Amino acid sequence: MNYLIGVDVGTSATKTVLYDEECRPVAEASADYPLYQPQNGWAEQNPQDWEEAAASTIREVIAKSRVNAEDIKGIGLSGQMHGLVMLNEANEVIRPAIIWCDQRTAAECEEITAKVGAKRLIEITANPALTGFTASKILWVRNHEPKNYANCRHILLPKDYVRFVMTGEYATEVSDASGMQLLDVPNRCWSKEILEKLDIDEGLLPKVFESPEVTGHISTEFAQRTGLSVNCVVAGGAGDNAAAAVGTGIVEEGKAFTTIGTSGVVFAHTNDPVIDPQGRVHTFCCAVPGCWHVMGVTQAAGLSLKWFRENLAENLDFDAINQAIAGVPRGSRRLIYLPYLMGERTPHLNPDCRGVFFGLSAMHKRADMLRAVMEGVSFSLLDCWNILQEMNIKVKDMMACGGGSKSPLWRQMLANMYGCPVKVGGEGGGAVLGAAILAGVASGIYEDVPTACRRFVGTASVCQPKPDAHEYYGKVHKLYNKLYDQLKECYGDLAAL
C-alpha cells in the first residue's frame, strides 16, 4: 500500500494527516503556535514555529501509523497565504514573518499603485494593491528596516519556508504566488514589469511550479529528523484556499466553496481568468494547471468567534456554543455584529475599519452576542457571494469547509443567506486532503487532480435554504451594509486618533 501526507501550515496550528492511496486518513496530528501583535494592526509569527510544528507532526503520524517510510510516496503542502519570510545568505530567518492579516502597509500600497498604475496592476496581478499581500510587506521592510532588506537573499511564503526546510529547494507554486502581487496571474509567471517598477530583484524569489508538480525530495537532514525517506517527493502544493478547493472537489466549472477558518472565503473555480475591474474579489491561479479561481476574502471569520470565546465566553467549546445559540432567534434579537477586527478585504478594501456590535441593549445575553457574531461573519461572506453573482459566475454546487463548517447551525445560516444548498464533505477533507491529493498526482499515484477528486471527494450532508429565512436575512443584510457606509468616515477618524 502506498501512502501520502498532507501538511497544512495554518495561522493557529499546523495539521498533518497521513492518508493511504485511497485517501482514507490513517493518522493525524496538530501543533499550535502563537501569533504576535506588537502594535495595533500588526500580525507576525516565528517561521521556526512552523518548521518545528511540521517536523513534530510528521514524526507523530509516522509513529502512530507504523507505516514503512519507503511506502510514503509524497508530501503536499498547504498553508496561510501572503506571509513574508526573509532569509539571509546563511539561510537564517532575518525577522519574524509578517503574515496575511497584518495591516501596516497602507502607505506601501499607495506606493505600489503610484509606481505601477491602478489599472495596469489589476491587469497583471488581477488585484489592486492590498495591505495583506506580500509585495507591500517587502516594500515596508525596505522602507522601515533597510538593514534587514539589504541582508535578504531569499523571499519565501510560509508553506514554502517549510518546503525549504524539507528539501533545501527555494520553490513556490502558482496559487500561493498569485497572492504576492508579483505574479502575472493570466500567464502564471513572475511579472518582470512589476518587479522592475517596484525595483525588486527577481533573484530573491523562488522558482514557480504548478501545484501538482514535483518541487524536490526530502533531504537527508529532514529524513533523519522525521523518519521520512529521501525518495519521498514534495509536491508544489497550494495556498490554503486553493488546497481546500481540491480537498472539497471544487476543481471544475460551476463549483464553489465557503470556508470559515481564521479568515473567511467564498471561492469559485473558473476555467478562465475572470477579473473584477473594481478589485473587490481576488482572481488567482488555482491548483488545477491551466485554471483559475475567484474568491472573496473576509479577514476575521473564525477569528471573530475565537476572540469572543477567549475574552467574553470563558472559552466555551463549540458544542456548548451551538447549544447556547440554538434558542436564539435569527437576527439575534436585533443585534448586528460587524466582523472587522483586522480591517477588511472583500468588498471594502479598508484596513482601518474595526468591529462593532450594533443594537446592544440590556436584554441581550451572551448567547445573543454569540449568534450575532456568527451571523455577522455570514453577512460578510454573503457580500463575497453577491459579487461573484455580479461577475456572472454561476455556482451550482456550494461546499462548506474550515472549522466553522463543523457547525450545522452555521451551515444552515449560510444556506439561508445564499438561498443555495450548502454541502459538507466527509471527515478529513479540506486543505490537508487537497495537499495530499496534489502529492498523489506529483508522485504518479493519481492521473490528474479532477480525476482524483471525482474518485475520492464526496458529500456527507446538505443544508437546504429556507425561503422565509432567506427573505429575512436579505433585509438585515441591507442594514448591515448601511452601517458600514455610515461608519466609513468614522473609521478613518478613529485611525487618526
TrEMBL record:
<dbReference type="InterPro" id="IPR000577">
    <property type="entry name" value="Carb_kinase_FGGY"/>
</dbReference>
<keyword id="KW-0547">Nucleotide-binding</keyword>
<keyword id="KW-0067">ATP-binding</keyword>
<keyword id="KW-0859">Xylose metabolism</keyword>
<dbReference type="InterPro" id="IPR018483">
    <property type="entry name" value="Carb_kinase_FGGY_CS"/>
</dbReference>
<dbReference type="InterPro" id="IPR018484">
    <property type="entry name" value="FGGY_N"/>
</dbReference>
<feature type="domain" description="Carbohydrate kinase FGGY C-terminal">
    <location>
        <begin position="258"/>
        <end position="442"/>
    </location>
</feature>
<dbReference type="GO" id="GO:0005524">
    <property type="term" value="F:ATP binding"/>
</dbReference>
<protein>
    <recommendedName>
        <fullName>Xylulose kinase</fullName>
        <ecNumber>2.7.1.17</ecNumber>
    </recommendedName>
</protein>
<dbReference type="GO" id="GO:0042732">
    <property type="term" value="P:D-xylose metabolic process"/>
</dbReference>
<dbReference type="Pfam" id="PF02782">
    <property type="entry name" value="FGGY_C"/>
</dbReference>
<keyword id="KW-0418">Kinase</keyword>
<feature type="site" description="Important for activity">
    <location>
        <position position="8"/>
    </location>
</feature>
<dbReference type="InterPro" id="IPR050406">
    <property type="entry name" value="FGGY_Carb_Kinase"/>
</dbReference>
<comment type="similarity">
    <text>Belongs to the FGGY kinase family.</text>
</comment>
<dbReference type="InterPro" id="IPR006000">
    <property type="entry name" value="Xylulokinase"/>
</dbReference>
<dbReference type="Pfam" id="PF00370">
    <property type="entry name" value="FGGY_N"/>
</dbReference>
<dbReference type="GO" id="GO:0005998">
    <property type="term" value="P:xylulose catabolic process"/>
</dbReference>
<feature type="domain" description="Carbohydrate kinase FGGY N-terminal">
    <location>
        <begin position="3"/>
        <end position="247"/>
    </location>
</feature>
<feature type="binding site">
    <location>
        <begin position="81"/>
        <end position="82"/>
    </location>
    <ligand>
        <name>substrate</name>
    </ligand>
</feature>
<comment type="function">
    <text>Catalyzes the phosphorylation of D-xylulose to D-xylulose 5-phosphate.</text>
</comment>
<dbReference type="InterPro" id="IPR043129">
    <property type="entry name" value="ATPase_NBD"/>
</dbReference>
<dbReference type="GO" id="GO:0004856">
    <property type="term" value="F:D-xylulokinase activity"/>
</dbReference>
<keyword id="KW-0119">Carbohydrate metabolism</keyword>
<dbReference type="InterPro" id="IPR018485">
    <property type="entry name" value="FGGY_C"/>
</dbReference>
<keyword id="KW-0808">Transferase</keyword>
<feature type="active site" description="Proton acceptor">
    <location>
        <position position="240"/>
    </location>
</feature>
